[in-house]
Amino acid sequence: MTKAEIEAVLQAAFSRCDAVNYPLNEQQKQILLGLVVELERLQRQSNNGDDHSEENPLDELTVEQRSLLLEFVKEQEQQNHPWKIKLLNDWLHNRNSASMQFIRELYGPQWLNRVQPRHVAAYAELDNRETLKVKVGDRIEVCNSLWEWVQESGPCAPEWFPCTVIGIAEKDDNGQAYTSCLIRFDSGMEYEIQGIYRWNRYNWRWPNT
Asked: What pLDDT does residue 185 have?
């Protein structure tokens, strides 16, 4: 869809909200329309071959702000609440986001839309903590070192394959609890990753796109 088409859909949605006596205020409308601008920017970058995959929006935060965000993400994930949805809902309903209010006031929805799971995971790993947990439906990439011997240089070099998480299970092996993850490759083949947060943590990653 083009920018004009998306804006037309949003304007129709605004009208429907008015019709059922749940009108959005101007700030709420601007948040939604701002996301259209961000989508257009990302599309333009894609068309121009402009690759910003190495940029991490969390680099723009202060150390204190980043720590607050990581803690917030971790708390929301533990409650199975998508953290970005929580913030957007706060903004749309004009609710104060407490410790996360600074994101709304200083960075806005455009910045929030740039943040991907790999960006959060990059800083979480520096603190040696698993902030984001995989969920059914998530897209991740797995390394072929899961099922074959690989070397950085050699006939069997590491390769990464996209897949979708289709199952999560908590297991116990003689008192040692671990998480097992069932994935499905785009080819339709399925594979189980045992110890996804422990011994196999470095054999999967969040995708760059």
From this structure: 94
CA-to-CA separations, 26 to 35, 37, 91, 93, in angstroms, rounded? 14, 16, 12, 12
pTM for the structure as a whole = 0.54
Tens-digit pLDDT profile for residues 150-163: 766 666 778 899 99
Cα-based distances in Å from 59 to 83, 106, 119, 120:
19, 14, 9, 10
15-44: pLDDT as tens digits: 888 888 888 777 677 667 666 656 665 555
